[in-house]
Amino acid sequence: MPLLLAACGPQQPPEETSATAKRSVVVQLVQPQKLEVAIKLPVVIQPKDILELRAASPGKISSLEFVEGATVPASQIPNGEWLEVDEFLASQLEGAPRPTEDEIVFRNLRHLDGFECFARIDDSQLMQNFREAQANYDQAVRDLRRTEEYPQSTGAQLDQARTRRNIARAGAERVLAMIEDTYICNPLQGVLIERMHQTGEFVNMGELIGKVAVMDTLVAELEIPETHRQALSMGQTIGVRIQSVKDETGKPVLRDAKITKIDSVAHALTHSFSVELEIPNPNLKLPAGIFGTVDVVIYKNPAAMVVPLTAIRLNGSSKSLFVLPASGGDKVSELTNIELGQLSSNWAEIPGDKLKPGMRVVTFGAQLLGDGDEVTWTEKDPYVVEGGGEMKS
Q1: Domain tally for the chain?
Q2: Range of the domain at 165
Q3: What is the pLDDT of residues 129-173, one digit of tens each?
Q4: DSSP E strands: which ranges in 93-187?
């Protein structure tokens, strides 16, 4: 009969199977962090105003020095002071030569001496009319004084003299106003963007002579979707980045702009609101008619819990995370049925209190894990090499 022999000796430990082997994973420490989500929107930058400078009186243009692209300074007719002849003479400096006859006649036009404006309409005929009107007024003033000094003047004579004086004054002031209308002024400094006439051409009353763009303040216009309307408020400051204009370092210019207008009614087709922002441009370095971009913050969380998208394991419609406890250890726990907050192309916000500060979330190797598995973990991603490059498999 064959003899069965059994080997005697110490029992060998069982071989480690794949079920009990520790898996190597990459983890990332999770801590609360400030989270801001912004959307990039295009803006169109335009001048704040376009002024149309028109002729206030008909006539031939006698002066128009500005060319298109030139800066037109602001100008306004200065206020004049009406003086009688004796008041004008008394205002002269002691020892100064007596004013000429023309200086006396045109004494009430002295506020226009040296005044510069955008354009002038020929006023030679009006100046002659003013000479006559001023002479009539001065004569009416002298007649009134003689009537007042004559002891036998009746009340009716005094009334007639005063009426003639008032009528003459009104006539002179009317011609004075017509002369002031020949000065075409620009109320706000700007850039001449269009010039319709040349010096020597005849223009009618109200005819357009030039257009001036007010550039010391620019307006940026954007459209904000209705779902993000609450992210903007009146008076809020937003940075506008202008790619086509570079600063001294060669980077795109970034200017602060203040929201001055938000439409209260959304567009029927786009369901967006129009928003206007004012950009200070005191040195006129920024051009108009260009594009820019703004970043509108639509979500803020000062203590957000954020994980990489690679840490999320999908199982049908449910989502889960594998984490190492904050207290330490090598056993992973599965956080099931987690909700996702804000998302980007490479991270996700985890709202709620399931994910706690100090936990380490598995970012690589989570797909083959189970709840309670022991792992060998590292915080250094083996697929990222020094210098910022990625290891190619």
Answers
A1: 3
A2: 78-114+123-181
A3: 999 999 999 999 999 999 999 988 899 999 999 999 999 999 999
A4: 119-121, 183-184
Same structural domain, 274 and 329: no
Among candidate residues 25, 38, 31, the one with its CA nearest the CA of residue 300 = 38
pLDDT (tens digit per residue) in 348-377: 999 998 999 999 999 998 888 889 999 999
**Is the Cα dihedral 327, 328, 332, 338 positive or negative?**
positive
Instruction: Give the angle subtended at the CA of 325 by the CAs of 322 and 328, to the nearest 5°.
Output: 130
What is the C-alpha to C-alpha distance for residues 284 and 118, in angstroms, rounded to an integer? 19
Same-domain check for residues 309 and 292? no
Mean pLDDT, range 384-393, rounded to an integer: 45
User: CA 317, 323, 325, 330 torsion: positive or negative?
Assistant: positive
Q: How far is Cα 51 from Cα 133, in angstroms, rounded to an integer?
A: 35
pLDDT value at position 1? 42
Give the separation between CA 382 and CA 391, rounded to whole angstroms.
Answer: 8
pLDDT tens-digit map of 269-288: 999 999 999 999 988 889 99
194 backbone dihedrals φ, ψ, rounded to 5°: -155, 130
Q: Where is 269: in which H helix or E strand?
A: none
**pTM score:** 0.69
